[in-house]
Each structure stands twice: as structure tokens, then as C-alpha cells.
Hints:
mainly alpha
Amino acid sequence: MMEIFQKGGPLMWPILACSIIALGVIFDRAIFWLRESSRRDRRLVEEVLALAEKEAYEEIRERVRGSKDFVIKVLVSGILHREFSLSAAMEVAAKEQLDRMRRGLAVLDTMVTVAPMLGILGTVMGIIKAFDLLGTSGFQDPRVVTVGIAEALITTAAGLIVAVPSVVAYNFFHKKADQAADDMETYGTSLEIVHRKNRHQSTEAYTFQVPEQLQGERIV
Length: 220
């Protein structure tokens, strides 16, 4: 393996650096999503929505204490700011969660692009070197060219070896973030509907309530 690495030339070192960076991001995101998956509590989310419909906000506070579910965090942020702007508060909280989920993906995307480009660059430089040797030695030893081109292709193979698993991991983690965004949007919309319904019912109750001093009197 070390012999092949050395045959690839100096550009194998930046390709190796790309592979280390990509592996680091993949490992970090894998641990992150395993942790986030273990924290999900869909039953608690449904309970929060049911309690919000009853306006049992104190009970919600007790039920969600200690929860690290990202959907719960978004809903709680909206509930805490319900008197000002429930939807805006949830949007801010959801953005914070998505920033956490997409952390490192831009770096991984860069490695997907850079690694094969470095490989192609190494191949081009190797071919140039092979033809330069051909011009020097002529056709007396054609193996000089074939061996040189074979060695030049090592960098392309190395770049693809880094890029292929990286792009698979990138698409997987990006899909997970999109699914999480859909969950936050779905439950956030449900909470907003419940809140508007409660406010509408409160307004109706206030509008049609007869003042105590007028109760029992006939209105002419």
C-alpha cells in the first residue's frame, strides 16, 4: 500500500488530507445523528400538542423538563413566546437546530469536489511526465510510457476512493437534516393551528359574554 502511495506522486498527500478530513466529518455526523435519534420522543411531542390544545402550559413545562428532542425544543420556544410571536420564535429555534444538523456538511461537500480534482491533476501531471520521458528515450522502451501512465492514474483512483463514500455520506446526512426540518415544520404548524384556535375561542367567549350588571335586564 505504501509503495502504491509513493508511486502516486506528491499530490497523494493532499488527497490523503482530504480523506482524513472527510472521515472526521463523517464520524462526527454519524455520532451526532445516533445521539439525536436516541433523543427523539414522538409520544411526548403528541402529548405537548394535546396539552397545548387545553392550554395546560404549566403541565407542558413539567412534562418536557429534561427532554433533548429537537422538535420539543422548537415547540417549547414557540410556547414560551406565544404572547408575542409563536411562529417567529419557532422559526428561529428551528434554524438553530438545522444549523447544528448541517454543521460540517459544507466541508464534506468540498472534499467531494476537491479530491477527484486533485486526482485528475495528478494524472495529467503524470501523463505529461510520461510523454516527456518518451520524447527523451524515443520508442526504444515503450514500457517507460505505459508504466508512467499507470502510475499517473493512481491519483485519479485515490481521488475517487475519497469522493465516492463522501458523496454517499453527504447525501445521507443531508437527507436526515431535511427529514428533521419536515418534522419541525409539521409539528410547528400543528402547534400554530392549536394556538390560533385557542385564541379564536377566547375572543369569541369574550365577545359574547354578557356583563354581570346587564344580566337579567331586558334590552330595549
